[in-house]
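Q: Structure tokens for this one, please.
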Amino acid sequence: MESNEKKTCLCGNGEYIVVACSGACDLGQVTDLVARKLRDNKIRKMNCLAAVGADIQPTIEMFKSSNLLLLDGCPVDCGKKILDKAGIEYKYLRLTDLGYVKGLTPVTKEVVETVYDKVAVEY
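A: Here is the predicted structure, written as tokens:
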């Protein structure tokens, strides 16, 4: 099925941006859900961390001039390594620093709400 509609990126841009590791583990899923909740509640625009890994220069330049928040799930620090390599400054929150344990944290509404509440107030 073909469409004549122009496909566009749904990533947000602006002064306040959030990106998440969005990894395959439970904590990665929580970071993604929290980032989406920040977006939905208009606290921050959500954008794509993968664009930095793919060396998409317009996104990298936009991130460099934004108030960027990175949500990483665990000490592997995938998101941190990607942004550091690109020379991007950011605010940072790692879920394991809040006491959550990779592989042992259920992805529940309560966990997402608790992390969201902390992020929405402090960042």
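A few notes: Residues 48 and 83 are 12 Å apart (CA to CA). The beta strands are 16-20, 45-46, 67-72, 91-94.
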